[in-house]
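In practice, a research group might receive sequence data for several interacting partners and want a quick structural hypothesis before committing to experiments. The following worked case mirrors that situation: the sequences arrive first, and a predicted assembly follows.
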Amino acid sequence: MSLIKLLLVPITIYLSMSAQASTQEYIFINIWDEYVQPTSLPAPSAPRVMLQPDINIDDASLEQFKAAYPSYGNIKIDKQNQLMLQFSVRQTPMRILVENGKVIQREQLSTATVASKEEKTNTPLKTLAGTPFSIETVNSQYRVLFFSDSLCPFQHIPACEMKIEMNNHLAAVSDYPVLTIIKPFYVDEQSAYAYQKRFNIKHDIVFDHHNEVFSTFDVRELPYWLVQDKQGKVVYRGNQPPSLD
Amino acid sequence: MNRVIFYLLLTLLSTTSTAKEYPILNASTLTNNVITSKGKITYLKFWATWCAYCIEEMPLLEQSYQQANDHYQVIAINIGFNQSEKGIKAYLDKHNYQFPTVFDESGKITQQFQVLGTPQHILIDENGKEIYRSALFTDELQQHLNTLQGVN
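A structural hypothesis for the assembly, expressed as tokens:
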């Protein structure tokens, strides 16, 4: 009798473990939405895997998110969106319960809206050092405008680190005053300060709160240079550093 | 030995200079028109309404469409992720955009063109070979379109 019991115990444990192992819970979130609309996560109903779709994401951004939200410390990128396509996930946040490879439950999770830190009012432009900045008189203060993005390094800003380095060199050796303008999409002024520190920028930086400097000069490519003469006429524009001979 | 190195370099160069080639795109637009990339130079833009960079570029996409004059076709692919067909139609109507738009409901087209970010611009030739690809609307993309339009 005791021998049967001895045999039954490990079999029961094995069966219970294999039943659990065959059920998996996947939570798909979009970290860019989580910053403004955090997901209300339910208690796990099976071993949980947190996934970020492989859209507009890189390792650095994911690490930054994990640092801000430690409860998502195990989140991974769903490389090539393999699981998202396999489970037909087209919305986030989404909870998918999979048993033996088959989706048995699918639930759109709820979110809470966090008030935006960005002021809705028209924030006057100024350099990060606090000097008021005017687009109308930019040519009297600066000759070289360098349009950049504090999300660097990121996929939509090719070779940005190298180009920021090139611009720093340009600012150091040139007699022409250089200004860096930071794109405001998805970031706030604090990210511009972080950019300044990260890339050791010694020249002036303006955070373009309402994208008005970018719009005025019709700049859409990043990073991008623009050179004006003293009369404010644009004499160069392009994605390579200007020759200032 | 030198000859071996020469051929190795040649092989490497020929590998790296091979343009990407994509399967033919066959799809229906939001206005139920059937489109194909077969035999046509095609400018694809992958986008979403939640993508600020995409939205900023939309007037350029419309302009590229209006100036195409049958030299190339423009197809806007909404990637379908966190999107609804109704929402996209409302957005396009609001701005009176005319370019043909495909709603990639399943994400298969986005996968087919190996798109992992928005915006994404892909210019392909009549055989589906990639002519140019970029994340943002670059000067180089504009130059390619100008050339096709006969502006340059």
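Before designing any experiment, note the following. The mean pLDDT of chain B is 91. The longest strand of chain B covers residues 42-47.
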